[in-house]
Design a protein that fits this description.
Nucleotidyltransferase, domain 5; elongated; single chain; alpha/beta; 47% helix; ATPase_NBD; Hypothetical protein af1432; 3-stranded mixed sheet; 5-stranded mixed sheet
């Protein structure tokens, strides 16, 4: 679900590779309905929802189907995106992943890596409707990921909305894009690229336009400037004659061209080639779990744990305890979809100790909230940070209370299990205390120690937990501890 177009791809896994069965797209132009203060218009939402209604008919009756819905820049920045997501869930009953810009960039590079052989040192640009992703990669591995606030739909609205193609409009658009590219890290300006590649619709349309002028799709700065002068000579978008370019794409060519010219000038690019792969292919291969894309999130968790010197032996013990408790209540509390989130939180709950042990839950949450986490959507990253922030001490009632009701209930239940698991491992050397958990109802958790458990301190800790969980609407019932 991009800022310009929504794409549907249906594929099947065949002997370790993907066979594309069906492709379809609709030009929804969500970004066109995004106001300067970040409010998505009802008209734009309805265009998106109508597209989802159409797409749902293509796969709703397929058997053994894995479905992944990924949204990019416009829904990433829209302040009222929850209204769209709620309406979309009634049409297609699968969660929408609103991915961060760096995750979009990673998936784009992954998709390209599946579509062609890459060089030792590569630079990739993908001009979308609302954002532009720029990636440095070494062979199949992305090394630097950046997402910039410039896109063909948003820049069309800002600089070419009246349909007039003037040098002044191009200068203004290029100047705005220059500021975005100037924010890139120094690695992007080092040059010596073995391959410079462009992906997705805007770059493709520009290549198709250049093919009309020169007979091939080679992209150089001089050719881009010549195309800009041709557009200015036509004077207005209604007069543009580009037979090779899809008619609906033509109005977005000037904005995409301004961004691409800025990219060439600011980063000193000599030549660019178009590549077929992009975000969709990256999503598909990870969804299928093929090759190097198996469980990217688990690799991310392990990498973060190593980076912040987590005591992984202790973290594994806590995780095993937490997940054992999870199994005891998961079905009654309908928590199955959140199993991996809870496992990640247990594995990483102590990453903040690397900064300071006293408030390590807060430091850990900050690290998670402000890190690039390959494989994680914005919402999953937010939930992980929230669990880590509240795994000890008094819970943040305001942050948890701000969640949507159904999601808040799930998060409170996960939080209770995480806190109990951490609590039973407070003595790092002594054998862990063991608890049995049962869901009495939606708001009560019964906790009792296994036989032989010494619970002098445990009872005090659990009584403290009773008081801390009560304001969240969860009552902790203690059983079998009356012998103290």
């Amino acid at each position: 679900m991009g800022s310009n177009s929504f794409h549907l791809v249906i594929a099947r896994e065949q002997d370790g590779s993907l066979q594309i069965l069906h492709k379809e797209k609709q030009q929804v132009q969500l970004a066109q309905g995004l106001s300067p203060d970040g409010i998505l218009s009802s008209d734009a939402m309805e265009r998106g929802l109508n597209c989802l209604r159409d797409f749902s008919q293509r796969f709703s009756n397929l058997c053994e189907t894995q479905v992944r819905l990924v949204a990019t820049h416009t829904l990433r920045v829209a302040r009222n995106r929850d209204a769209f997501v709620s309406a979309a869930l009634k049409i297609i009953p699968y969660p929408i992943e609103i991915i961060p810009g760096h995750e979009e960039a990673r998936l784009i590079y992954s998709g390209i890596a599946q579509s062609q052989v890459l060089g030792k040192r590569n630079l990739v640009i993908d001009i979308g409707g609302g954002s532009t992703e720029v990636v440095i990669g070494e062979k199949n591995q992305p090394m630097q990921l950046s997402s910039l606030r410039c896109g063909c739909v948003s820049y069309n609205e800002r600089f070419f909305a009246d349909g007039q193609l003037t040098l002044a409009a191009f200068r203004a658009a290029q100047s705005a894009a220059d500021k975005q590219f100037a924010s890139l890290s120094k690695e992007y300006f080092s040059g010596n690229w073995e391959m410079v590649l462009g992906s997705s619709g805007s770059v493709k349309a520009i290549c198709e336009a250049l093919a009309e002028l020169y007979g091939d799709e080679t992209v150089t700065l001089s050719r881009l400037k010549e195309l800009k002068l041709r557009l200015v000579q036509w004077g207005e978008i209604s007069q543009v004659q580009l037979a090779n370019v899809e008619a609906r794409r033509v109005p977005l060519v000037p904005a995409g061209l301004a961004i691409l010219i800025s990219f060439f000038r600011r980063l000193g690019i000599g030549r660019l080639d178009f590549t077929q792969g992009a975000l969709r292919e990256g999503v598909l291969y990870e969804l299928a779990g093929i090759g190097q894309y198996q469980d990217i999130r688990q690799r991310t968790v392990e990498s973060i744990a190593q980076l912040y010197h987590v005591d992984q032996q202790h973290a594994a013990k806590v995780r095993d305890t937490v997940m054992a408790q999870f199994e005891q209540v998961a079905d009654d509390w309908q928590l199955r979809p959140h199993a991996r989130l809870l496992s990640y939180a247990a594995s990483l709950h102590e990453i903040g100790i690397h900064i300071n042990s006293r408030g390590h839950h807060k430091h850990g949450a900050y690290i998670i909230a402000h890190s690039d986490l390959p494989g994680f959507s914005q919402d999953l990253q937010r939930d992980l940070a929230l669990l880590i922030a509240n795994h000890r001490k008094k819970p943040d009632l305001e942050a948890i209370g701000a969640l949507e009701l159904g999601h808040r209930l799930a998060m409170v239940r996960l939080l209770a299990l995480l806190r109990l698991g951490v609590l039973t491992h407070l003595g790092r050397i002594a054998p862990p205390l063991t608890l049995k958990c049962s869901a009495i109802d939606s708001e009560q958790l019964l906790v009792r120690p296994q036989k032989g458990t010494k619970f002098n301190l445990l009872l005090k800790d659990l009584q403290r937990e009773q008081k801390r969980l009560a304001p969240l609407g969860l009552k902790l019932e203690l059983e079998g501890m009356d012998r103290l």
